[in-house]
Amino acid sequence: MALPKVCGIETEYGIIVRGGESNPVSASSLLINAYMAKVTSRGASRAGWDFNDEQPGSDARGFSLDDVMVPELETSLVNAVLTNGARYYVDHAHPEISNPETTTAAEAVRWDRAAEEIIRISVIAANAQLALNHTSRPAGGEIVVYKNNSDGKGNSYGCHENYLMARETPFGRLAAQITPHFVTRQIFCGAGKVGCEAPGAAHDSVPYQLSQRADFFEEEIGLETTLKRPIVNTRDEPHADAQKYRRLHVIVGDANMSEVATYLKVGTTQIVLSMIEDDALGDDWLLGHPVPAIRHVSHDPTLTATIMLADGRRATALEVQWGLFERAVKYEQHHGLSSVGDEVGRDVLVRWEHVLMGLESDPASMASWVDWIAKQRIVDGYADRHGIEPGDARLKAIDLQYHDLRAERGLARRAGLDTLVNEADALSAMTNPPATTRAYFRGRCLAKYPESVVAANWDSMVFDAGREPLSRVPMMEPLRGTADHVANLIDESDTAAELLARLGS
Amino acid sequence: MAERTQKSKQTTRTEEAIVETDAAAPAATESGEKLKAELDDLLDEIDGVLETNAEDFVKSYVQKGGQ
Questions:
Q1: Cys-Cys with A439: which of A85, A160, A242, A494 at CB 3.0–4.6 Å?
Q2: Which domains are assigned to chain A?
Q3: What pTM did the predictor assign?
Q4: What is the ipTM of this complex?
């Protein structure tokens, strides 16, 4: 029986300073500090991130590069932990929010929406500071943040997903069997892009494509995340009991503006991974040449291009998706979908079928669900209305502005996308953690005992309860520390010392 | 392969869904016009919020690579 597919999304946002000196690192720091100043109660200390257990150089194939690789995490940069269980920090010159651990696609979308709201509030707070501080920056400087994955000039930044997997699932089989989904799911979760950034290709050689990210993938499998990006990333850093678990770190996806696209991206991937863990997927859809295939699919908005399968047959991305979907229907009948939440899992199947049928019969009919179609509708409509040829900067401007998170400027929010999360739920998820994972313990402790939390990370928290030495509380089980386990304990403990005494007893 | 996919795809559809599509055909033009009107409204709105100097905006949107 597949493990619960605990999941989380981490997004690196694009950031610019308009009318000011554009240093993305200082702008990102300002953004996060402004937010933390706004939400941290006066006098309360701010918990730092604890880097003790970070090993981004460990490879799932069984070796470690930590000694030879420059650490990816620059510990001197701004780094905060939020009461909703998320981490908010500066990574590679981008503000990044790593959402708290969640158990279903519905929860993942809710905290992803909350992250957008956190950015929005951060931007307002940071720009208020910029307006006040004329001495260090030219007056009128304004930070703008984009939820996209490329600048159109060959620079990409990621929106990663993470899924809990059983350690005993052979990694080689996992990598081979998940690849067909990673290459073809972009037909419904691609965020759309004007132009091409594939190495060696002219920008206008592809007027419009499905994915922001596909141009940047050069390997089938590997440890890198910033160069020669692999379709399957082998970073082996479970942030949990390494004997039992691995965390599949997925770097191949786009950041979605469409909530339904995020929901389908996470929900379908959870189901496919469950099938792989239960060895119920089989090898029928293994791909022959995944790297050219991922671009080939992305560069074909007609959805008619075929890619080669491992046994020499050819299939369209839609056919591969139908194949995976049919396996998923059988899987639901034989195994159930408890690993992804039964109710949400069944809803994912219904929407998965709906989106494939829509894409097959009339892709334009999916404009309220699928980002690349919603964006294409605006790009093509604008080009028609103004008689613009492909390659015009105005079309690329529309592409970028689709992802602008400002309410008054963002095009996605005007594109008629369906929503799944109501406003109140998104807002409450800015400060409240999911109840279903250890993020609950992390978030509640930060909210209730801010002075006593010295540091936190994914799998532990360090408390200063007024006595030596500091107490580290390990959280190696992602499904412990939930509301069911600890809500009463936290409710009944007025201080961290009381909580620690109760936890120890 | 293609044959097998075609066959299995059909099994995922219900008769109902197929009938529905046929019955909806006369309404298609109407909904097509509605969609076009919606797109026109959207494009009007977008004309109002689009960055004024697209060329400069696109040129100045430069990011450092990330993960």
A1: A85
A2: 7-118+144-428 (3.30.590.20), 439-504 (no CATH)
A3: 0.92
A4: 0.91
